């Protein structure tokens, strides 16, 4: 079921990587007036077939009513917002609302929020939870913080991106929510990898072990959609080891600032550093399974078994 596009709002989108392309597509499919910028312009061209206009710089989106950004990290967010060709570069026009769906540091976001406010631009932090397949299935979750009136204005569009939108407060609250979420993501992926290796060393197939976990009280959307990667050793990246490292370091920095000990997070961070050191940084972070197997001197082989990821059945729920 699609949501009709609200009347009269023109949208801009910055960043059409793996996730950004999926989400921009969802907006286009639901009738939104969308103009797109991506640093590598060729990656934005497929969206033009769906009705998007492609521009050559973030500044070219300044005449849009609302601009959504989804970039790789804090430096990229600074560049597209306040760089020489940034959205807030000197000029007559600026959008009245920016929604940033990236995972960036709270300090950088706060600085850009202040710069945006000086130009009369409201900023919502709206990081998302899920990978591109989750997004395509309509099961993405969004945490949002910033001015409440801006949130109410953005809500119809945010609902187009996924099934759950949660307003969590003012300022940078959503940044902290997403960072905490990704710390859980890494710790759970690590314990799932360790126990899967333990089960296999004991003679239990990965598919059978994970089928049991997924149908138990410990099963989750995450464990289900990672099961095909763990069973068939498919490490096509949805979220890389490098990106997980970035988010763990954001979390550890937030913990230092807030005087909160994170011993499990700190240990998992070291494991992620080892993962990258072993050459897995550009692959999906499911390669934590390979690292756990190496520690046990266990050679993994693909099961070559078709297993469900728990997402396909939801694909018709958009």
Give the number of DSSP strands. 9
The first-level CATH class of the largest domain is given as: Alpha Beta
Structural class: alpha/beta
Mean pLDDT: 93
- How would a crystallographer describe the biggest sheet? 6 strands, parallel
- Please report the distance between the alpha carbons of the first and last residues: 5 Å
Net shape: globular
In what order do the strands lie side by side in the largest sheet? Answer: 3-2-1-4-5-6
In the predicted model, the low-confidence regions spanning at least 5 consecutive residues are: 313-318
The string of secondary-structure elements, in order, is EHEHEEHEHEEHEHEHHHHHH
Portion of residues within helices = 40-55%
Task: Provide the β-strand percentage band.
Answer: 5-15%
CATH homologous superfamily designation of the largest domain: NAD(P)-binding Rossmann-like Domain
What is the annotated CATH architecture of the largest domain? 3-Layer(aba) Sandwich
What is the CA-based Rg, rounded? 20 Å
Note down, in words, how this protein is organized.
The protein is built from 12 helices and 9 strands. It is α/β, with parallel strands linked by helices and 318 residues long. The protein folds into 2 domains: 10-171, Rossmann fold, CATH 3.40.50; 176-317, Orthogonal Bundle (N-(1-d-carboxylethyl)-l-norvaline Dehydrogenase, domain 2), CATH 1.10.1040. It has a 6-stranded parallel sheet, with helices on both faces. Strands 7-8-9 form a 3-stranded mixed sheet, sandwiched between helices. β5, α4 (106-118) and β6 (122-125) form a beta-alpha-beta unit. The longest helix is centred in the middle third of the chain and has 29 residues, at 173-201.
